[in-house]
Write a structure and sequence with these properties.
Uridine Diphospho-n-acetylenolpyruvylglucosamine Reductase, domain 3; 25% helix; Uridine Diphospho-n-acetylenolpyruvylglucosamine Reductase, domain 2; 3 domains; 357 residues; Uridine Diphospho-n-acetylenolpyruvylglucosamine Reductase, domain 1; alpha+beta; 28% strand
Length: 357
Amino acid sequence: MTEATAAVRLAPLTTLRLGGPARRLVRVTSEAELVEAVRALDADRERLFVLAGGSNVVVADAGVPATVVQVATSGVERRELGEGRVALTVQAGEEWDRVVAGAVDDRLAGIECLSGIPGSTGATPIQNVGAYGQEVSSTIAAVRVLDRERGAVLELGPEDCGFGYRTSRFRRRDRHVVLSTTFALAPAAAPGSEPIRYAELARALGVEPGGRAPLADVREAVLALRRAKGMVVDPADPDSVSAGSFFINPVLADAAAVELRRRVAERLGPNAAPPTWPGPDGGVKVSAAWLIERAGFGRGYGRGRVGVSARHTLALVNRGGATTAELVALAREIAAGVRAEFGVELVPEPVFVGHTW
């Protein structure tokens, strides 16, 4: 049932617990209500913003002079594909970690390393969520969307989604509203998981990179690693009052990577080198956390009510009673420090609502 409320504070609806009010909040609980609400707002030419889990947004202190559509849809439809493969069509408002837990319980592989990521399932294709060597784009079979320009509901294949490193055709654009996502998952091979590609996770599981482990063990290991970094939302953990990783690992062209190595050697010594991995389109992916720490912003850095997490350099936390302005000022200070020290631009991962980076 659609519910509408005026002047609702958005801070309690976000994991950062920051942000002012929306002019109006419309809460929808079914796909039909979501489509109807967005179409009606568009017909009236009202500004709108779609919000679900609130885990990847930074809302302005002044709030949003628009109608916020809160997506509270739920449901998972299972369809057999043959040879043990299963399609799961998940409504946009369904909690993501519940989907992962269900897949692990059903011995379906492909998303186990994405355990513990907060937020809704509808957000996962938007930012091509990834962690510990997996990305959702590798299992997405279709994304059902409302095309606001055409007013039509469409089903897009992965080839139409523009997936890239932590991005898609849906990110930072408001033409499409994600209604549901279909994942094609395979039965777990012995002993269970997909090959473990991430070295830290492989160590935690006691396997070599490329090895496998039982799905349940992989999920528990990922959750333990995330908890140790304050990256599992927990009301009792002040380090989890964040938007997750605030900055994306930069992907550099070869020339820029060479220049970065030169500057690192010049400042930190000839044996110093930033951790790198092969990036998309032949680029070089660099650890943002390493750059931030070497630029002087270690764990626990900050002033007053905002700071860098004491357990994870990429997470900026609201220590209690903070403002969005304070958090963004800290983020800009960090980005400016990395730019000055290493000549690398850091890009925020969360979406800024009611203000800009």
